[in-house]
Amino acid sequence: MPVITNIDDLKRIYRRRVPKMFYDYAESGSWSEQTFRENTSDFDRIYLKQRVAIDMTGRNLATKMIGQDVAMPVGLAPVGLTGMQHADGEIKAARAAEKFGVPFTLSTMSICSIEDVAENTEKPFWFQVYTLKDDDFMQRLFDRARDAKCSAAMITVDLQMLGQRHKDLKNGLSAPPKLTPASVANMMTKVHWGLGMLGTKRRSFGNIVGHAKGVTDPSSLSAWTSEAFDQALDWDRIRVFRKMWDGPLIIKGIMDPRDALEALNVGADAIIVSNHGGRQLDGALSAIRALPAIMDAVGDKIEVHLDSGIRSGQDVLKALAMGAKGTYIGRAFVYGLGAMGEAGVSKTLEVICKELDTTMGLCGRRDVHDLDRDILMVPKGFSGEWE
Length: 387
Ligand SMILES: Cc1cc2nc3c(=O)[nH]c(=O)nc-3n(C[C@H](O)[C@H](O)[C@H](O)COP(=O)(O)O)c2cc1C
Known about the structure:
It comes from Roseovarius tolerans. This is L-lactate dehydrogenase (Cytochrome). It contains 16 helices and twelve strands. It has about 375 residues and is α/β, with parallel strands linked by helices. The protein has a single domain, classed as Aldolase class I (TIM Barrel, Alpha-Beta Barrel), CATH 3.20.20.70. Helix 13 (about 255-265) packs across helix 14 (about 285-300) and helix 15 packs across helix 16. The strands form three sheets. Strands 4-11-10-9-8-7-6-5 form an eight-stranded parallel beta sheet. A two-stranded antiparallel sheet has the order 1-12. A two-stranded antiparallel sheet has the order 2-3. Helix content is about 45%, strand content about 10%. Flavin mononucleotide (FMN) binds near residues 274 and 277.
């Protein structure tokens, strides 16, 4: 294994090993990609206070997210098509997460199905649902998640319709990939990836094909997808979903304090401050800039988590010190997975854990429960003053 010291190392290997279509799918944001870029660059605007001569022994990163034990407050975010980044990708990532002791969240738009992941893992994972028009299908998704012993459901509320990513249209993104001269020429250079894919039957959307009405094969799927998402979604409808699932519930995709209050009223156990990794509303604030106003509105009434832009343990530390009780990584684990499968996801988690642990110590803190704004230098006007 090459010497991996940071997430960028994994990203470089990932880029070499995975077909361009799937690299581009992960490594892009919507339209101009402003929000995608600022999600990461805004973390760099926050500085850390170095403290010295403080006992740094006996540090602790273990805590709880929605009442469940985690080795560090960093979960794997739901990522569609993970099984196209590496054969059986969802199973590989879920195994790495369970070994590390952090939550894995399976996307509705995964390649491996809920049942597949449950059969191939030991510990409960979390399941993410998109908000679809078809009540029967939604109820079945929640029922399948319950039968698979998922210990939380995550409802993503920021994708009533799809933000446009130019590269996906140009590449003709699909699962399994369409065979064009350009895609075949590119895939032929990705030997590891290709052998993995030949060795698995899991090459289409496992939660949908054969489960949604009228979707019996991948070719009928695209018509289903454009029809299925519910543009009429409102909070009353989210209340209906709350009734379908009586376990722990996380609402993902909150960027405005008013929406945070709505999520609280629906009876969610946690919210995720997230702009979908810059893949939906381009021009929205970065998640880390949106966090303070949401903390002010609901911070002591509901657990607030954050994703979008986290590429290091230092980023995790900053989000926690700004008040988040949990964080998630999307692309950072995809890089690891595409680079070297399960071992790569484990490596992602190790890198982030070590960075978080060491940086916390160098800030003079020994416990994730004791992080606060006092360790940070946040530029004046960071969250913005808007007309
Ligand atoms: C390739 C890709 C696919 C994604 N698919 C989903 C999905 O199926 N469901 C969902 O709720 N979020 C999805 N997301 C958003 C992630 O859950 C998460 O919000 C985002 O990746 C966080 O930003 P980061 O990648 O900068 O860490 C996806 C993100 C990426 C990069």
